[in-house]
Amino acid sequence: MNLKIALLPGDGIGPEVLNQAVKCLHAVEETFNHHFTFKEALVGATAIDRTGNPLPNQTLNLCQEADAVLFGAIGDPKYDNDPSAKVRPEQGLLKLRKELGLFANIRPVQVFPTLLDNSPLKKDIIAGTDFVIYRELTGGIYFGEKKLNEEGTIASDLCEYSEKEISRIAHLAFKAAKNRSGKLTLVDKANVLESSRLWRRVVSKIAESYPEVTLDFLFVDNAAMQIILNPSQFDIILTENMFGDIISDEGSVIGGSIGLLASASVGEQNALFEPIHGSYPQAKGKDIANPIASILSAAMLLEHFGLFEEAMSVREAVDKSLKKGIVTPDLAKKSQYGTNQVGDFIADNIVDEDDDLNMNDENIGLGKSTII
Ligand SMILES: NC(=O)c1ccc[n+]([C@@H]2O[C@H](COP(=O)([O-])OP(=O)(O)OC[C@H]3O[C@@H](n4cnc5c(N)ncnc54)[C@H](O)[C@@H]3O)[C@@H](O)[C@H]2O)c1
Ligand SMILES: CC(C)[C@H](C(=O)O)[C@@H](O)C(=O)O
Ligand SMILES: [Mg+2]
């Protein structure tokens, strides 16, 4: 298959982890005889420094013309620590999501059997965790009108949702639930927010078209607790933009590190793949960031184009690195392996299973194809 992939390394550890994902995609190209073309562009603080714009037109055009975007991370303390900054790296990512129409952000939360001891949570609670968060990505409080009065003493952010915005992601989430265990939980704050009550009405109506799916509702405060008390109760979680952002970072605690959680953002035309973590500026240039979230995001990219065997080969190589303890320090304090070594190991272990008769595929961590 030929694929044009836009690479947006961004800031902090973004370039380091993205490089490892690209190594793995090169290995997939060679092993399975595909042809991927990579073109890189600026985004985030790096783009502001070079052009004054966190999402230069050239970058947006490249992404619009590409088959897929592979994104590193954006963000820089010089903006995080300056609440008055007029231009911010995050605006680049938000505008990109909006312009590409990436309304559904899909964030699988699973536990690698090898990492059951890595979580601060009890093994018997987290074993078997396997749920997917469908996070609405181009609406809600992130994109509502923002106001600050002249004195700078009163500020507001409007949380607005339309029926259309809710129903298009709801359909994707119901279809995913239908293909999995048939359970969908809508996470909201319908006891307080009018926008959440609209979500409940729209989602309840759509549920009538999916009789095989059981729908239940959970207030987000309770959901935040249930996710770590009893994660196995969840299959598909559907939620709005900000709640999805927050509960997915929380969900990463189950698996042992946020450096493991990948995501796909999809719309009608475009698709973007990125780790859920940020630019982790404290780790920039230290070769300690976990590249697995970025590598698994590349695996989701492959699945998006129907390259399931290829995606599986990446997941199996990741699993092998975990089993052999070839991991970054977030997963083993005394680890002597860096971002690059872990990336090299995983890329070197991408094999076509049909060609490898000795492959042992017992107990594969994230073996199950995810969602798209
Ligand atoms: N999609 C994105 O690009 C994205 C996502 C989240 C945050 N951000 C931005 O990133 C910057 C830093 O934000 P933050 O510190 O709140 O979140 P962060 O995700 O960058 O880091 C939070 C913590 O998670 C851990 N971590 C993150 N990535 C890791 C990795 N690959 N390997 C091992 N450990 C990892 C580290 O302990 C780190 O201190 C901010 O500017 C923020 O706006 C960007
Ligand atoms: C950087 C920020 C705008 C972004 C978000 O809130 O969507 C990040 O936290 C994420 O999870 O991708
Ligand atoms: Mg986030």
Description:
It is globular, with a radius of gyration of 20 Å. It is built from 13 helices and 12 strands. The chain has helices spanning 14-32, 44-51, 57-65, 77-80, 89-99, 123-126, 163-179, 194-207, 220-229, 241-255, 292-304, 308-323, 339-348, and strands spanning 2-10, 35-40, 68-73, 104-110, 130-136, 146-148, 155-157, 183-188, 214-219, 236-239, 262-266, 271-275. The relative contact order is 0.17. Helices cover 40% and strands 18% of the residues. The protein has 2 domains: 1-102 and 268-372, 3-Layer(aba) Sandwich (Isopropylmalate Dehydrogenase), CATH 3.40.718.10; 119-255, Isopropylmalate Dehydrogenase (3-Layer(aba) Sandwich), CATH 3.40.718.10. The chain is α/β, with parallel strands linked by helices and 372 residues long. The model is unreliable at 358-372 (pLDDT under 50). Helix 7 crosses helix 8 (194-207), helix 9 (220-229) packs parallel to helix 10 and helix 12 packs across helix 13 (339-348). Strand 6 and strand 7 form a beta hairpin. Bound molecules: nicotinamide-adenine-dinucleotide, 3-isopropylmalic acid and magnesium ion (MG). 3-isopropylmalic acid is lined by residues 75, 90, 93-94, 245, 276, 278.
